[in-house]
């Protein structure tokens, strides 16, 4: 018979006490051993006997209390003297020994049996804890796609790898949160480096500040930029245009329509008709008969915006026959404010990626080009991780533009052949800027929420995953955040942010909220379906660290340094492009 692991026969000096209270997910243990009590650290692990001799309950210490007890009034205190030490433990899962088809011990998150009153409780410390962590890590690594964000934060075994189940991490969506400077960008970069190494990796990282440019040096990562003002005349291969004809009807109206205008309903109706007419003419000219029979106003069909504007301008000046000669038509003058507003949007070079399009972007084949750049999975010749830099997109329409990109990816994935569909992940950096609480969302943000909300609820069916990254979890849309069943929480100090994270955790993970403010830089608590054990880990340092270090103000002010190139700064401001060159203007 195979000898049971040492974890099933811990040494007596590891015993902390006996169970005195049990409820649905909590166990209370009483002890009078002062020496052992001092070793019972909050958030440490324990192992408890159960009625099944081949199973042990694994728990996390949530609270340690010492109080005076009167044996005459408290039956639980009898036999323990006048001082009662009480340890509250949250049940985490079950450790099963060999047998029943198992060749070795395994850990499962299911709490299959709770200990009986009087059951023994042992501390998991030192080599025992290292052995248990190694067993959990080995179990995670046996899954189809293991990944690691770092090592377990254990003093005795600092190099024990903290493996996660890569399938569960992306299948069930994930959330990375932490205050500014806590190490979120490192966590994202380290994760993307591992994803990029997979043979058929497929992920898109939304980079709002251009900080992940160093990651593009990875041989299996490519970087695109939403075209800025400097790209309109001579766009490079990395410049992406998102043509206006990709915008849905409501998105276009949110961009160009002033809802306070008394003529707004007429303007919306006339614009929709003009767009339909322009799309029909474009499909007819291209000989796309099947598409002509099925298209709608929201279909991604290229059309000439000039044609739609000309039709509206004609309505604005239209005369109709009257009794005594021509009279003003029903829409005469109704677009006097709409047309200049639309023209101002079209002439704004910051919106050139929408309106100042190269001729190729007005072709029906441009959608194929976008799909190829954004959606194609990695191979030996092609990078699978794509960074999309949105840093030059105006902040007032940033939510809409990111929402447009997410909706395009989801629609392409949804309409792809199921037999050849490749899963794809969207990494949403600074998500609170475009996935806010709906009560605080403006029109553009509300439009961005719709595609992300649908991806959060239905993405798993179509192989689209979300990794939401934010420094303000309290400001995230709860409908999206609640669908993230894996949480990587770095240091959080604000009470509202800690509460927001705790609401996403299972009931038996209580107490982790208080731990978040005590984490060091580069430390995180990982909880969720991908992590068999709620774990405190030290993040690994990425090989291609993002350009997001905290500025050391006092040190910078204390030493002589090169003068800031303000001439280049002014030039960049005027040209609305972030030049990295050190050359003089």
TrEMBL record:
Which ranges does the record mark as transmembrane? none
A GO term for molecular function: ATP binding
Q: Which SUPFAM superfamilies has this protein been placed in?
A: P-loop containing nucleoside triphosphate hydrolases
**Residue intervals of the Helicase HerA central domain:** 155-334
Q: Which UniProt keywords apply?
A: ATP-binding, Nucleotide-binding
Protein source organism: Cohnella zeiphila
Tell me the protein's name: ATP-binding protein
């Amino acid at each position: 018979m195979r000898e049971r692991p040492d974890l099933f026969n811990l040494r007596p000096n590891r015993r902390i006490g006996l169970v005195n209270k049990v409820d649905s997910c909590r166990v209370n243990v009483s002890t009078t051993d002062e020496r052992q009590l001092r070793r019972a650290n909050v958030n440490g692990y324990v192992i408890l006997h159960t009625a099944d001799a081949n199973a042990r309950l694994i728990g996390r210490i949530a609270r340690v209390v010492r109080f005076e007890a009167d044996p005459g009034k408290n039956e639980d205190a009898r036999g323990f003297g006048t001082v009662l030490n009480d340890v509250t433990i949250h049940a985490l899962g079950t450790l099963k020994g060999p047998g029943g088809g198992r060749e070795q011990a395994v850990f499962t998150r299911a709490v299959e049996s709770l200990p009986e009153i009087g059951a023994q409780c042992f501390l998991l410390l030192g080599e025992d804890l290292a052995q248990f962590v190694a067993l959990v890590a080995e179990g995670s690594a046996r899954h189809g796609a293991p990944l690691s964000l770092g090592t377990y934060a254990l003093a005795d075994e600092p190099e024990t790898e903290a493996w996660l189940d890569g399938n569960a991490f992306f299948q069930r969506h994930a959330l990375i949160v932490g205050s500014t400077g806590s190490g979120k960008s490192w966590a994202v970069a380290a994760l993307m480096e591992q994803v990029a190494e997979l043979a058929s990796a497929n992920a898109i990282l939304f980079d709002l500040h251009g900080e992940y440019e160093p990651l593009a040096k990875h041989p299996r990562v490519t970087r695109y930029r939403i075209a800025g003002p400097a790209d309109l005349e001579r766009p490079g291969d990395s410049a992406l245009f998102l043509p206006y004809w990709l915008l849905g009807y409501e998105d276009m109206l949110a961009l160009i329509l002033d809802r306070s205008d008394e003529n707004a309903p007429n303007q919306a109706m006339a614009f929709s008709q003009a767009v339909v007419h322009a799309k029909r003419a474009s499909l007819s000219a291209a000989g796309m008969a099947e598409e002509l029979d099925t298209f709608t106003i929201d279909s991604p069909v290229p059309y000439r915006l000039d044609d739609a504007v000309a039709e509206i301008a004609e309505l604005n000046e239209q005369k109709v026959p009257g009794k005594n000669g021509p009279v003003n038509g029903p829409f005469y003058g109704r677009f006097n404010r709409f047309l200049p507003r639309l023209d101002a949007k079209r002439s704004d070079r910051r919106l050139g990626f929408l309106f100042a399009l190269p001729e190729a972007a007005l072709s029906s084949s441009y959608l194929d080009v976008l799909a190829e750049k954004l959606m194609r999975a990695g191979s030996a010749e092609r990078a699978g991780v794509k960074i999309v830099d949105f840093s030059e997109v105006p902040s007032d329409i940033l939510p809409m533009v990111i929402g447009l990109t997410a909706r395009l990816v989801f629609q392409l994935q949804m309409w792809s052949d199921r037999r050849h569909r490749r899963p794809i992940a969207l990494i949403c950096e600074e998500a609170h800027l475009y996935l806010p609480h709906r009560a605080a969302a403006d029109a553009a943000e509300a439009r961005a929420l719709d595609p992300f909300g649908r991806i959060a609820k239905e993405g798993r069916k179509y192989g689209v995953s979300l990794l939401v990254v934010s420094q303000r979890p309290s400001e995230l849309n709860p409908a999206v955040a609640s669908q993230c069943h894996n949480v990587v929480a770095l240091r959080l100090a604000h009470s509202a942010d800690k509460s927001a994270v705790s609401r996403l955790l299972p009931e038996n993970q209580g107490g982790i909220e208080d731990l978040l403010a005590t984490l060091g830089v580069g430390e995180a608590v990982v909880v969720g379906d991908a992590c068999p054990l709620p774990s405190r880990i030290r993040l690994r340092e990425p090989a291609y660290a993002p350009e997001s270090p905290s500025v050391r103000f006092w040190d910078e002010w204390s030493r002589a340094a090169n003068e800031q190139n303000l001439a280049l700064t002014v030039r960049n401001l005027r040209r609305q492009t972030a030049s990295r060159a050190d050359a003089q203007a």
